Amino acid sequence: MVQTIKYSIFKSGSKINKKYLIKDMNNDLLEDINKKEVSSKVYFQTDSICIYNDDFLKIDYIKDNSIDLIVTSPPYNVDIHYNAYNDKISYYDYLIFTRKWLAKCFRLAKNDGRFCLNIPLDKNKGGQQSVYADITTIAKQVGWKYHSTIIWNEQNISRRTAWGSWLSARAPYVIAPVEVILVLYKKYWRKENFGKSDITKEEFVEWTNGVWTFSGESRTKVGHPAPFPIELPRRCIKLFSYVGDTILDPFLGSGSTLIASVKTDRKGIGIEIDKNYCKIAKQRLIREAGINQLNFNKLIIKNING
Ligand SMILES: C[S@@+](CC[C@H](N)C(=O)[O-])C[C@H]1O[C@@H](n2cnc3c(N)ncnc32)[C@H](O)[C@@H]1O
Predict the structure, then answer these.
(1) Which one is predicted more confidently, 164 or 201?
(2) pLDDT computed for residue 160 by the predictor
(3) Confidence of residue 162 (pLDDT cuts 50, 70, 90)
(4) Which residues line ligand 1 (CB under 6 A)?
(5) Considering the domain boundaries, does residue 277 fall inside one?
(6) Chain centroid to CA 8: how far?
(7) How many domains does the structure of the chain reveal?
(8) Cβ contacts of residue 306 below 8 Å, gap of 6+?
């Protein structure tokens, strides 16, 4: 039996055809006019999620105005040793990079699309910088509208390592052991359609208080140098999107956003430049989101990278 599935989230036009043909349930491969071009970037895909091993700044296969909610945490430029990304560039270059991906996210979001951006409040490594203030300004310059800011109290006291001048007013450091989640939207804050919300009364009351307290994720446990806990995207997804919405994480890392998307019955797209992290994300989806081989056989569209 030949089935045709239309993926409205993928770009139509000369390069990519949005019609994908599944030959039958036992055949993993899809057919489309330029399948090689896109499929070489697909690391892993089921009927509801897709991981692309690609550079977010270069992709052209996600359709503009197609994403309901973006949840992400970009590189912070604090010299974290990622495999495929240099996390120690000048602050000026970092802000240029930031402008590019913020503008790209803006294009991909629907008019009532939202953006939960996990970033540091500020940084002192390599010189003090007002990261949150600067990124907020750039986000607004490229078109995003400001909605609110959630303070994430990570309770991470290990950050208290630099005192500047100990017990002296000469040059003390003040460090807030928190991060923020900047909440933005494209054009309209009120969603254009009514959809199904799955948030409980307790969650709604607790999470609309803009100070969230839960621990960070263990790097060693996850195998990634800067993961956020699944609780972060889970809250953003349940509070700001409907069941069945499409969630995008342009800096997927170890896959936390996709795990939260699967667990909350949303569709998810993740872009990650590093193949090793794509592999970790896939393994975590299997382990932590309950996607198993049985489901693969029923759901899988493409899984070219083992
Ligand atoms: C802060 S980490 C994200 C961690 C993620 N939230 C998690 O829970 O694992 C940022 C990620 O962005 C990736 N990255 C950097 N530049 C990228 C680019 N241009 N396109 C896609 N991914 C990129 C890095 O490899 C890194 O894994």
Answers:
(1) 201
(2) 61
(3) confident
(4) 55-57, 73-75, 82, 84-85, 224, 226-228, 251, 253-254, 256, 271-274, 277
(5) no
(6) 20
(7) 1
(8) none
Tokens of 80: 């974290």
Stated pTM of the model: 0.87
Q: Which domain holds residue 95?
A: 54-269
Per-state percent for the chain, helix, strand, coil, to nearest 5:
30, 25, 45
What CATH number is given to the structural domain containing 224? Answer: 3.40.50.150
What is the DSSP secondary-structure string of 125-168?
Answer: TTS-B-HHHHHHHHHHHTTPEEEEEEEEE---GGGTT--SSTT-
Higher pLDDT, 110 or 12: 110
d(CA 276, ligand 1 centre) in Å: 11
| Residue 264 domain-assigned (yes or no) | yes
The pLDDT value given to residue 86: 85
Instruction: Give 22 Cα–ligand 1 centroid separation in angstroms.
Output: 31
In the predicted model, what is the mean pLDDT of residues 93-102? 97
Work out the number of other CB atoms within 10 angstroms of the CB of residue 204. 12
Q: Are 149 and 182 in contact (CB under 8 A)?
A: yes
Q: Cα–Cα distance between 115 and 117 in angstroms, integer?
A: 6
- Residue owning the nearest CA to atom 3 of ligand 1: 253
How deeply is 232 buried, as exposed, middle or buried, from its count of CB atoms within 10 A (0-12, 13-18, 19+)?
Answer: buried
- The upper half-sphere exposure of residue 144, i.e. CA atoms within 13 Å in the direction of its Cβ, equals 30
The verdict on residue 135 lying in a domain is yes
290: its two tokens: 């309950």
Q: What is the pLDDT of residues 170-194, one digit of tens each?
A: 999 888 889 999 999 999 999 999 9
Q: How confident is the model at residue 297, as a pLDDT?
A: 45
Alpha helices in 14-158 (DSSP H): 35-39, 91-108, 131-141
